[in-house]
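Please, structure for the following, as tokens.
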Amino acid sequence: MRCKQTGLIFFPAFDWAISPTHPEREERLLYTRDQIFEEGIIDLPQIAEFTPQLASIHDIARTHFCVPQVESQTTEAHLIAAGAAITLADQIVAGLIDNGFALVRPPGHHAMRVVHGNRGFCNINNEAVMVEYLRSRHGLKRVAIIDTDVHHGDGTQDIFWHDPDVLFISFHQDGRTLYPGTGFIYELGGPCAYARTINIPLPPGTTDDSLLYIVDNLILPVLEEFRPDFIVNSAGQDNHYTDPLGSMRITAQGYARLTEKLRPDLAVLEGGYAIETALPYVNMAIILALAGLDYSNVREPDFWPGRFKETSQRTEQLKRLVDGLLKHWKNRDTTLTGRGKTVNGYYEREKLIFYDTDYIEEHQTEKLRICSNCTGYLSIESEVSHGFGQAGKVLCLSVPFGACSKCRNEAADLYTGAKKSVVYNYIYLQDKSSDYLLGYDTKAGKEWRP
């Protein structure tokens, strides 16, 4: 009888770095890989290692509007990182492995739907590209993404904000104390997907006990009701108590118990910058938990039971937070709201986005067509300033999976009409219901199909 197998992919991306001394560098994975080999984990029958494929340009364009084109915002390392998630997801959906962990970089969860550059070390959202691939190629309907990075997964939230079939839950250090400064409890999704976005901002110093309370009393009950076809863990390890960027007190044992309870189909590495003191322990504990193996002896050398204790005040705050979010979840189908306004059949909101790595300022006007037959198509006007005089404006039209013919035709007509305008530098049509993608360069008068 075949034993339970967990698929692994290591991709340290030696040829990609923001700078030689930046904390996001290949050593993040090399120490983990050494630990896994030295402990003989890779030789266990419960573990299978895979070689990643490259995500295609079409796979990226199905999820993102890359300006001006996908090739200008990606390197081969980005395609391999996203392709690694796709490789393992294919294996899982085919039933060839039980679950998987893509230990890859560059990370992705700060990359939003429209991409003008790098923000939060991310250009391409690896998990979102994989999720849209699964829905397009394998017909999966409902997907849950649980983001466990210390930083709010604002990019993933942005991509699935209006999608009622993707549940996005993020717990993270309070945005008032850490980049990207978002992820508050009132951020609950668009008018067609209310409470399919759930944010759990936690105070600095949060421990394993609080983390596991959230899992048991909020995340697992919500998942049980949502009944996803596939669960993704956007696995940031920077909640660890030694991480130099975060200020939390989560241990390797805490991460392992989280994984054991969550039972994700696929974990994809995000952040985590304590290269020697956290990542080898946390990643190995997660691998063992995924494979159903004993992880009780995985402990950091400087940790002892009882080192971190939760205060009664913090515990009471956490219970009130969980109770409040559960009320939003229970009212999800009867609440029509959103932090925007509805004008002439469109839900509108304005967004300001800052690219901290590339110093780009972006202003978006987002309009969602309110439709009684489907979740409506999305229109995004995006205008950017690169800080050195370069500016531009693009129009992005996104038609969701399962869109009605009226919305599909209306979005296509808008695309055709915009090509005659001189307002936009580039125009994009992304019809996910037919997997039909187009881009148009107004200055050159050229159209392309990614």
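The radius of gyration is 21 Å. The chain has a mean pLDDT of 95.
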